[in-house]
């Protein structure tokens, strides 16, 4: 039954907002993710000035690392609190503006212009709004999306990347009968069928 037991599970946007409000954010890594440090070369592939996407970015410190290396970073995050904490914790000045194509959405951009964080549902984004990316750091995004939305998520991501982009995906491996998620368990076979 394994994965079947999670298939119906839905975590609402309210629940995610509550996690941020309560500080229940065990998924946030203050020191950045060791796997990104390890595979940074794979992501960048010797290229500079890339446009890199952070789906469901929270306040990931890696966004600052990559921006400091001269790349431009775009993130999407439902929690406005997370986005504001990102800028304040790095002492980065930013401006805030509405996103005309998405009702109720805001875009927070560092004054330097190289970090743009969209505060909305990831499913509201499209390449016509954010363009296409050379790299994606998907750490905790695919595994946080409700299982019923996975196909939709993968289709969106495929739509957002350039032909020769690098997609780094971190998943978690555990017995789905023992943990209801998120993070959800996504078997390798499903990743292959989602992303080809």
Description:
- By secondary structure, this protein is an alpha/beta fold.
- The protein has a single domain, classed as 3-Layer(aba) Sandwich (Rossmann fold), CATH 3.40.50.
- It is 33% helix and 21% strand.
- The chain has a 7-stranded mixed sheet.
- The chain is globular, with a radius of gyration of 16 Å.
- Its EC number is 2.1.1.67.
- It is an enzyme of class 2 (transferase).
- GO terms for molecular function: thiopurine S-methyltransferase activity.
- Belongs to the class I-like SAM-binding methyltransferase superfamily. TPMT family.
How would you write the strand order of the largest sheet?
A: 3-4-5-2-1-6-7
Strand segment tally: 7
Please summarize the sheet with the most strands: 7 strands, mixed
Helix content: 25-40%
- Terminal CA distance reads 25 Å
Under the CATH scheme, which architecture would be assigned? Answer: 3-Layer(aba) Sandwich
| Overall geometry | globular
* Annotated CATH homologous superfamily: Vaccinia Virus protein VP39
Whole-number count of domains = 1
């Amino acid at each position: 039954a394994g994965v079947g037991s999670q298939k119906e599970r839905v975590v609402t946007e309210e629940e995610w907002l509550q996690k941020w409000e309560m500080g229940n954010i065990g998924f946030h890594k203050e020191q950045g993710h060791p796997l990104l440090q390890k595979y940074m070369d794979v992501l960048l592939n010797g290229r500079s000035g890339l446009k890199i996407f952070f789906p469901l970015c929270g306040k990931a410190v890696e966004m600052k690392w990559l921006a400091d290396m001269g790349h431009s970073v775009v993130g999407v995050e439902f929690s406005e609190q997370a986005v504001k904490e990102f800028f304040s914790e790095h002492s980065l000045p930013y401006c805030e503006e509405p996103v005309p194509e998405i009702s109720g959405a805001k875009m927070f951009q560092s004054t330097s212009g190289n970090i743009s964080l969209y505060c909305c549902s990831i499913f509201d984004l499209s390449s016509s709004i954010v363009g296409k990316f050379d790299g994606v750091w998907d750490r905790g995004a695919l595994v946080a999306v409700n299982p019923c939305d996975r196909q939709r998520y993968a289709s969106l991501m495929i739509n957002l990347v350039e032909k020769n982009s690098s997609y780094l995906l971190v998943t978690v491996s555990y017995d789905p009968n023992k943990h209801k998620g998120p993070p959800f368990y996504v078997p390798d076979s499903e990743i292959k069928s989602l992303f080809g």
